Amino acid sequence: MAIAYHKQGELLKSLNKYTEALEIFKEETKLLEDISTAFASNVEFKNNLATAYFFLGTMYESLSDLKQALFFYRHYNQLERELALSFTEDMKYKSNLAISFERLGSIAFILGNINEATLHFEAFFELTKKLVKDFPQNIDFKNYLSVACEKKGDLALRMQNFKDALLLYEERYNLSKELYQNFPDNVDYAKGMIIGLERMGLIYMRYDKYEKALDFFKARKELSQNLLTTFPKDANLRNSLGIAYEHVGLAYFMLDSVEQAENFLKERHILAKQLNYEFPKNEDYKDGLAISFYKLGELYRDKFKDKGKALSNFQEAERLFNELMKNSPKNSEYQKRIASVWVALASLK
How is domain 280-349 classified at the architecture level of CATH? Predict the structure, then answer.
């Protein structure tokens, strides 16, 4: 019966019927809870329940209900802890535990719960570091460690600990590069390289070393362009290229190369607009379009002194961020971004 529920839920999810899929996964989880309670010593039933909690977490995350996602990821984490402690030689449970720490940390980070995010990301990092040491040939563990470096780097960046962040992002890039060289058909490893290059560029922007930042951003742009020739249908790579254009444009902005800045920011805007049109329910793409309006507004206000163009771009950014806030009112990143737009609008009065 649980298998039937799961197949039905997956079918609905594949059809983008997330609300209906969620109800099916909830029925599946209730059934698995009853079975696990009745057969408390059965490892397979406990593992199946853990997986069900994970699926519920991903469903609530897809529906932007991050608090509920966090609730079920915590249940997932608790069961995987128990399984990993009981079966210390089974890599599967250690792998699942690592994933649970990453999801808990990522959701807490988005919600602005930095202390909780730090706790989970630190656990994720230490666990994956040990797994790579104990199982150096395991590719998944090395990739997990690469992601863990990124997550710890994001925390260091949030705390303005730029030196540590730079080292962690460099490790993210190096580990992903090693993986991609050995497995060139795996686009996720290449995306890890992109993240590393992007983050290192952002650190140098914080240090006001704009030429150095531009070098990293250009390298990131070229990598994204090369990957798109290999994986032309990958929408996330198109979005990645758009972000690369944005960062190159911002570096030129800081270097007072105004025409170059405008060209790249417009390229970013064009890609963001296309992706939002093709995937109107994707919050990341809508967020990217809003940011592109905001960055163009800053350019026209600060470099071209064109209040009319600045105003229209800021207003479009405000409209899109309002839509995002309506769907995800607890998202701390959206809160910060719309606050920045309000300050920008006020600056034009």
Answer: Up-down Bundle (1.20)
